[in-house]
Amino acid sequence: MRFIGITGGVGAGKTEILNYIAKHYKCEIYLADRVAEELQEPGSPCFAPLVALLGEKILGPDGRIDRKRMSAGIFMDTRLLEKVNAIVHPAVKVFLLDRLEKARALGETELFFVEAALLIEGGYGALVDEMWYVYADEAARIRRLKEGRGYSAEKTARIMASQLQEKIFWENCDFVIDNSGSVEESYRQVDERLKEFVRTDEGAVGKKTGVGG
């Protein structure tokens, strides 16, 4: 079973690529951001440590962590953000590695994916068998963010400027999908890369999820 990390800048089309993979391959796909959210639910590994660190002011009326309140509590406080990340990021890795071992034990999954914009910064290069970079040129990303999310040019520029430089993605990834053009061409690149790792294409056999449910 191949363990693959997928990363890329905002608007590059990672979701589109993962949706295709989920429909055509025996795979499990985990979105690291959604896993992190689930691990912050009451009773989950990150809940009590985060409340202890940030205080009950981050809780909403329902007793769950309110992510807007938590974000406000760590806004512009780099050291506090680092402490939050030190709680959440290792827990996400533990969760993913546990699911990876379970998938291997069952023997029904050929491909195991984790997606996040921060895989390189998070050190996932040491965990995965290979890292994929979903690339799209700047014009395509700007167009998608405007049409798909309604982002203004200013917001798009601000977000893109805050992310890793393109050369770092190229230097740290084993495979690049150029998703600037047609989806058919992007899918062809995926199929070409994966053909040596899978037995057959049997239709909608994958599972794309945050937490495996």
What's the CATH architecture of the domain at 2-34 and 97-209?
A: 3-Layer(aba) Sandwich
| Helical/strand content category | alpha/beta
Provide mean pLDDT, rounded: 90
CATH class designation of the domain at 2-34 and 97-209: Alpha Beta
Q: What is the assigned CATH homologous superfamily of the domain at 2-34 and 97-209?
A: P-loop containing nucleotide triphosphate hydrolases
Strand runs, count: 6
Query: Which spans have pLDDT < 50 for at least 5 consecutive residues?
Result: none
Beta-strand content estimate: 5-15%
Helix-strand pattern? EHEHHHHEEHHHEHE
Distance between the termini: 20 Å
Our Rg estimate from Cα atoms comes to 18 Å
Total number of helices: 9
- Which strand order spans the largest sheet, edge to edge or round the barrel? 5-4-1-3-2-6
User: Looking at the structure, what is the overall shape?
Assistant: globular
For the biggest sheet, the summary is:
6 strands, parallel
- State the helicity in percent bands: 40-55%
CATH topology of the domain at 2-34 and 97-209: Rossmann fold
